[in-house]
Specification:
Radius of gyration: 17 Å
Distance between the termini: 42 Å
CATH architecture: 3-Layer(aba) Sandwich
Strand content: 15-25%
Number of helices: 8
CATH superfamily: Vaccinia Virus protein VP39
Helix content: 40-55%
Bound molecules: calcium ion
Order of helices and strands: HHHEHEHEHEHEHEE
CATH topology: Rossmann fold
Largest sheet: 7 strands, mixed
Low-confidence stretches: none
């Protein structure tokens, strides 16, 4: 017995999925199609998608943000967890990847819940703030270019309502964050974000060792 998080081996991971994962057939096919892409490691882990869908249900989210869509797997989980009038503003810059996403969202019957914005995410987020939508979102998932993580965090925090929840992906970055020899820009950006969130009294937070590290930050104050 240990009070540390278990190291996951393949057998234990397969077991975890076998008694936990409730992936739909459309999700399975999207994951299989994405696995053939050269950037497939950018796809969220299935158990992580399901966990975020649970969080969305837990807080009764209706208005969601996603920063970094890729082929739309996590947005599909979140969209299916929303009530029929729930919406996701989904930010990405890739027409190619999001065309795959749109195909599966349509097949799953949730395309109408996802408002895809093909533009740099910071511009989309600032546009929402400028349009008076600060403090109006319930849930946000950040999983995009790491060098902008601190900027996404600040913009998303403004857009969340008090009690709104943000999830940030890859915050353990394959373990590189704990290796002082790793000093590339992405690793440094994630370390800086981790320090920033940990010290930020505007949020209650926890960094979970789910998949590649998932930080949850709950907005606890209305003024940001
Ligand atoms: Ca990711």
């Amino acid at each position: 017995m240990t009070n540390k998080t278990l190291s996951m081996n393949d057998a234990l991971y397969e077991y975890l999925l076998s008694v936990s994962l409730r992936e739909t057939e459309v999700m399975r096919r999207l994951r299989a199609e994405t696995a053939t892409d050269a950037m497939a490691r950018m796809q969220s882990a299935p158990e992580q998608g399901q966990f975020m869908a649970l969080l969305v249900q837990l807080i009764g989210a209706r208005r969601c943000l996603e920063v970094g869509v890729y082929t739309g797997y996590s947005a599909l989980w979140v969209a299916q967890a929303l009530p029929p009038d729930g919406r996701i503003v989904a930010c990405d810059t890739s027409e190619e990847w999001t065309s795959i996403a749109r195909r599966y969202w349509a097949e799953a019957g949730v395309a109408g819940r996802i408002d895809l914005r093909l533009a740099p995410a910071l511009a989309t987020l600032q546009g929402l703030i400028d349009a008076g939508q600060a403090g109006s979102f319930d849930f946000a998932f950040i999983d995009a270019d790491k060098e902008n993580y601190a900027n996404y965090y600040e913009a998303v925090l403004q857009l969340l309502r008090p009690g709104g929840l943000m999830a940030i992906d890859n915050t353990l970055w394959s373990g590189d964050v704990a290796d002082p020899d790793k000093q590339d820009a992405d690793t440094r950006a994630i370390r800086e974000l981790n320090r920033q969130v940990h010290a930020d009294e505007r949020v209650a937070m926890s960094l979970l060792p789910v998949a590649d590290g998932l930080t949850l930050a709950l907005k606890v104050k209305s003024e940001v």
